[in-house]
Amino acid sequence: SGTVCDAQFSDHSAEAVCQKMGFHGARAWRSGQLFEDQQISREVLLGSLECGNTNWSECILNTTSSSCSHASDVLLKCYNFWLISSDGSSIRDESEGLLLYKDGTVCDDKFTDLSAHAVCREMGYHGSLGWRSGVEHQQDYRSITMNEVECSGNDWNSCNYNRENNKCWKTENILLTCELPTPRDGGWSDYGEWSVCSANCGGGTQTRARSCSEPAPRYGGAECQGGQVEARDCKSYPCNGFALIDKSDTMITGETEGLLLFSGGTVCDDSFNDYSATAICRELGFAAAKHWRSGMDWGGVQANKPIKLNDIVCTSNGEWDSCQFSTNHDCAHNERCFLDTVKISPWWMSLEQ
Asked: What's the whole-model pTM score?
């Protein structure tokens, strides 16, 4: 016995050789020196094998001396499973078909989803799209040639089967649908949650990520376009002085209610009044305070910040320099101040108008 050179070898040659050996057809072929000792110890007996179709009797064999090296030896994989449609023709798309083994049917005893995947992969598909048993194809004249296909994984080498004692009814024949290994472009998943801000105040960054997994690309399909990670600024309010923030912990610059901060922490409402609100709004560059209140409306945004000021007492002139305050407190989270401004322009501009 010897090897076959890949000169003139084609897909037709592969099919013809597999059928000549009693298989149904060829799954794949290539050339190479994969089996070192087994190949080196043998001569190249066929210098070329040219087949214009899959009929072995019409193939042209060159048995004369060959200049081929073992690197040109043909490596061939044949298969015995295939699918047929209701009219008896072979199926190579994703249609349901009657599963055949050596021209006979396969019984569903011990057959599972793993068995379906393994058989489909053995035929060159990506895997199984589903299976069932029944009588809907040309089955009457076919014998049952395989039974009890039991697999522990998705590959045929993990399977055990029985080719004897096939005491099955035709209604137990396997009807199988396999998935082609077609290219599929990737798709982005939704973004995850934003990360914790990199700073407590003074401006930081937080990120969130997505993955190219819905679906994941396969078989040469395109990767997802665009970035995997998105970033945004966070906690841009100053680490010293007053600021107003919204529910997303972002500093407010317009005329809207916000949670009052001082040096990155909150302000307690003990002794707080309209004079306190006006003095702080002017310190922020606004004309005056529209209203103020206390509460626990913003959950974690408030709960995660320390209380920095308490007992703010101001005179009627509306200047922060007239105010007294304490950095000690016995306040709860629901005593934190919310402040609403009247005008964006600095207060001294309002006096000039």
From this structure: 0.46
